[in-house]
Amino acid sequence: MDDHELASHLAKKAGSELLKLRDDGITSGINSWVLRDKADIFAHHLIVNELARHRPQDSVLSEEGADDLTRTQANRVWIVDPLDGSQDYPYSGSEEWAVHIALVDNGQIVAGAVSCPSLNRLYSTAMLFPKERPVSDSKLVISNRWNSYQASYVADAIDARLASCGSAGIKASLVIGGEADVYIHNSGLYEWDVCGPIAVARAAGLTACQLDGTDFIFNKEVPIVRGLIISHPELIDDVLNVLNRTR
Ligand SMILES: [Mg+2]
């Protein structure tokens, strides 16, 4: 397996196991907080064990792992969120959770995958995406749940509807899948929230950048980013103009 195939394999395997764990947990009546914690740890161990087997030399930064910062000395680092949207995960029928996998080399993303198991969706840099993607006739901007301020101005400027939902991976997948045109997240995120989604978005021909239009550097000592835009490339100039005015 090359790095792209491995990212895809990890997201798919963790995603399907998480779906089974959730269904079994709900059937057995386990408390939702306990199920959520159990799932975080379970998916973390599954991913780090697979990485240790397939890429023993590489470093890992996982939301659920201890970070001893030795990764900052490494070139190749897998940045993973074993379960993004864990607050929504432990409920039957909830769709807003995902698995994020990315490989970063010298601070730049080189491969990645996002699986959205309850939408039966898997996107990865191992896939071939269509070269052309039309902007929708009925445009949609998607934002994070708790702060749609700037996204609402963007939606107004490009004559789009506005919606929000949980999980950065789910929101990115909506743009990648063509159901939405722009995703704006105007608050702080961890690198594991965004790396997998950015990897796949770029492979799909979308623009992914910070709120001021600049590129990201990953595997930082403090692994935080200040926001995220994933946009259809034809809309990015309009988006950045609005964000520039509303900052
Ligand atoms: Mg998580």
Largest β sheet strand count, sense and barrel closure: 5 strands, mixed
What's the CATH superfamily of the largest domain, by name?
Fructose-1,6-Bisphosphatase, subunit A, domain 1
**Spatial sequence of strands, sheet with the most strands:** 1-2-3-4-5
SSE sequence, one letter per element? HHEEEEEEHEHEEHEEEH
Structural class: alpha/beta
Give the number of domains. Answer: 2
* Share of residues in helices: 25-40%
Distance between the termini: 44 Å
Count the E strands: 12
Shape estimate = globular
Average pLDDT value? Answer: 95
- List low-confidence stretches: none
At the first level of CATH, the class of the largest domain is: Alpha Beta
Can you name the CATH architecture of the largest domain?
Answer: 2-Layer Sandwich
| Beta-strand percent range | 15-25%
Rg to the nearest angstrom? 17 Å
Q: Work out the helix count.
A: 6
Question: What is the fold-level CATH name, i.e. the topology of the largest domain?
Answer: Fructose-1,6-Bisphosphatase, Chain A, domain 1
Ligand kinds = magnesium ion
Describe this structure in words.
By secondary structure, the chain is α/β, with parallel strands linked by helices. It folds into 2 domains: 3-124, Fructose-1,6-Bisphosphatase, subunit A, domain 1 (Fructose-1,6-Bisphosphatase, Chain A, domain 1, 2-Layer Sandwich); 140-246, D-Maltodextrin-Binding Protein, domain 2. It is 36% helix and 23% strand. The chain is built from 6 helices and 12 strands. It has helices at 3-27, 32-54, 149-157, 168-176, 191-203, 236-246; strands at residues 59-62, 76-84, 98-105, 108-116, 121-124, 140-143, 161-164, 182-185, 189-190, 207-209, 224-225, 228-231. The strands form 3 sheets. It has a 5-stranded mixed β-sheet, with helices on both faces. Strands 7-6-8-12-10 form a 5-stranded mixed β-sheet, with helices on both faces. A two-stranded antiparallel ribbon has the order 9-11. The chain starts with a helix and ends with a helix. Magnesium ion (MG) is lined by residues 63, 81, 83-84, 86. Magnesium ion is lined by residues 63, 81, 83-84, 86.
